[in-house]
Amino acid sequence: MSQLASAVLAATEHNHQNLVWHCRLMLLMPDHLHAIIAFPREVGIKKIVTDWKHFWRVSIKIEWQRDFFDHRLRRSP
Fold first, then answer.
1. CB-CB neighbours of 26 under 10 Å
2. What angle in degrees, to the nearest 10, is found between the helix axes of 45-60 and 3-17?
3. How far is CA 71 from CA 2, 22, 32, 36, 63, in A?
4. CA spacing 20 to 30 A to 45: which of 2, 19, 21, 26?
5. Could you give the CA distance from residue 35 to residue 15 in angstroms, rounded to a whole number?
6. 14 vs 31, which has greater pLDDT?
C-alpha cells in the first residue's frame, strides 16, 4: 500500500474514532474514493467534507475536484 493510501486510511480512522463521522465503508481507488459515512446533523456533510479536503490540500498538496458527489439516505416517514 502506498504512503498516501495509508495516510488517507489513517486519517479516516482518526475522524471515525474522534466522532467527526461514522465511517461504515471506504473504498480507496487510484484516483478517487467511495465511502458510506454518517455525519452528525449539527455540523453536516458539507462542512466536514470541505474541512477534510482542505486538510489534504494543505498537507500533501492534493488537488480535489471543486465539489463532491453525494447521496443522502434517509428513513422514510
1. 15
2. 140
3. 29, 16, 16, 10, 22
4. 2
5. 13
6. 14
Q: How much is the pTM?
A: 0.73
- Residues ≥6 apart with Cβ < 8 Å to 38: 21, 22, 24
| Dist CA 60 CA 72 (whole Å) | 29
Q: What is the dihedral of CA 71, 10, 56, 50, to 10 degrees?
A: 30
- H or E segment to which residue 27 belongs: strand 22-28
Output the nine-digit C-alpha cell for 66: 471543486
Q: 77 pLDDT exceeds 60?
A: no
Q: What is the dihedral of CA 60, 63, 66, 21, to 10 degrees?
A: -30
